[in-house]
């Protein structure tokens, strides 16, 4: 059962699991040196409400660490390793993400039935703000209407149950830029939970790959 101690320590231990390995060689809270602590991390991530809404992700925690003034005395630390998690560890850790999301969605009316569809909902509801923000980060897309169209297409692609949902008139080059923008700018869990962010990043990789094929 979750205790007040778990709730109090979770934000700190979650951050340490990402940031300490980047700052100190061999210091990895999840690396097996502390088996009880490793099991605590796994147990917390098996809680749907934690993984779906409360927990941050490795990319967001590492990005904060690399920003001057955010807990690092005003200077950017020298990160030992920018590969935040290996593909194998990420795949194993998210092997039950579908079940976790299903449990979370059942207890939260109005939530989409899949993490990917929930990302599509978030993009759609915040589209106007995203368009304004994306102007600075997507110079290859000309005009707000084109950015808006690319965002709509990315949101539509996310609704596919198995792979990308396509409508046949995609501008893959623009979608690729927007997908990369979303992954770079998202802050987890401020904007969405870890499960949603993981689903979005996976979809974005598919979109970027498709865009590179089309451009070539």
Which key phrases capture this entry?
single chain, 216 residues, mainly alpha, globular
Can you put this structure into words, describing what you see?
By secondary structure, the chain is mainly α. Helix content is about 60%, strand content about 0%. It contains eleven helices and no strands. Helix 1 packs across helix 4 and helix 8 crosses helix 9. The longest helix is centred in the last third of the chain and has 22 residues.
Helical coverage, percent range: 55-70%
Number of strands: 0
What is the first-to-last residue Cα distance? 53 Å
Low-confidence stretches: none
The secondary-structure class comes to: mainly alpha
Main beta sheet strand tally, sense and closure: none
Quick take:
With 216 residues, the protein is mainly α. The chain is 62% helix and 0% strand.
SSE blueprint and pairings:
Elements: H1 4-23, H2 35-45, H3 48-54, H4 58-65, H5 87-93, H6 97-106, H7 115-125, H8 127-134, H9 144-158, H10 172-185, H11 194-215
Helix pairs in contact: 1-4, 3-6, 7-9, 7-11, 8-9, 9-10, 10-11
């Amino acid at each position: 059962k979750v205790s007040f101690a778990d709730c109090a320590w979770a934000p700190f231990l979650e951050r340490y699991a990402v940031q300490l390995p980047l700052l100190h060689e061999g210091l990895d809270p999840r690396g097996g040196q502390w088996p009880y602590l490793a099991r605590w991390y796994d147990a917390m991530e098996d809680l749907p409400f934690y993984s779906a809404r409360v927990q941050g992700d490795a990319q967001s925690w590492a990005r904060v660490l690399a920003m001057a003034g955010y807990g690092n005395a005003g200077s950017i630390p020298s990160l030992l390793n920018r590969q935040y998690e290996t593909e194998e560890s990420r795949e194993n850790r998210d092997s039950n993400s579908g079940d976790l999301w299903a449990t979370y969605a059942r207890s939260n009316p109005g939530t989409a039935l899949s993490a990917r569809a929930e990302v599509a909902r978030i993009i759609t509801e915040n589209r106007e703000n995203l368009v304004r923000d994306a102007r600075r980060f997507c110079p290859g897309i000309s005009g707000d209407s084109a950015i808006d169209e690319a965002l709509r297409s990315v949101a539509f692609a996310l609704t596919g149950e198995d792979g990308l949902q396509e409508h046949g008139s995609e501008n893959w080059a623009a979608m690729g830029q927007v997908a990369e923008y979303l992954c770079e700018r998202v802050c987890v869990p401020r904007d969405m939970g870890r499960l949603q962010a993981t689903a979005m990043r996976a979809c974005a990789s598919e979109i970027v790959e498709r865009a590179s094929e089309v451009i070539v």
